[in-house]
């Protein structure tokens, strides 16, 4: 069955090694065909990259150990893997897209849903992993080959949910690479702990995080950039594409692609039609919307950002539970996972 979780457990290094081994057969071909990897090559050996590595090692030593295990499992140099992990911190434009939506239902149930958009080469070549470290809650996440989980969509066994949208800011600042921070969120035990981590950790790149948690009535939209962290609470319904839209961050220098602008305008129009009777079917319909030349559901071989929708995720949260349903461009889910 598509997206059946691959279970991984052990120490941090053992988990990294297993993730690397899972991706090893694909990694060389994947990088060879990647325009992003070609654009990164001039950064090889740059002192700034080592500065980012120092921030990651100091701030997140356990995740750095996972990263080292990942390099071992992939059998590629750690310096090259670090370069790949810092792609969004070094390049102003990468082939990572995504659209997220969130809904607060009248009965207290909450939904976070997400289109994972990425390199079209990866369609059908990604995994879902169910990871249990020895020293953390454990999590379920969509897994790009050779990248630490967390920067896509996932949730942990403490009931914390996270979806990530790429932001193409034009500023760089020495700090923890954004993919390491997104992975660190999945080790958090609460919504407040995750928000605190994102607010106070020095950040090298920018991501949009949609966060929720079982037992917590809030849904948070967080735009975390190298110079700011804007947190908004979703009052009722919400949509976000791939550029900064919060009042406190939208004037940050950034690249807004035609696709991101079109998807933001369209998702805003769709969520405005939701009412007290709206639920999961409405979120899926919005993320599978194909209206316009640059639609939310991205399947075009000539997509201007070189991105296609790889999977759609819907997280249902209530006071005690988190359930994930994954859709493969179809109206019915191909996988359901009870996370908490």
From TrEMBL:
This is Peptidase C45 hydrolase domain-containing protein. Pfam families: AAT (PF03417). NCBIfam families: C45_proenzyme (NF040521). It comes from Bordetella petrii (strain ATCC BAA-461 / DSM 12804 / CCUG 43448 / CIP 107267 / Se-1111R). It comes from the Bacteria. Residues 108-326 form the Peptidase C45 hydrolase domain.
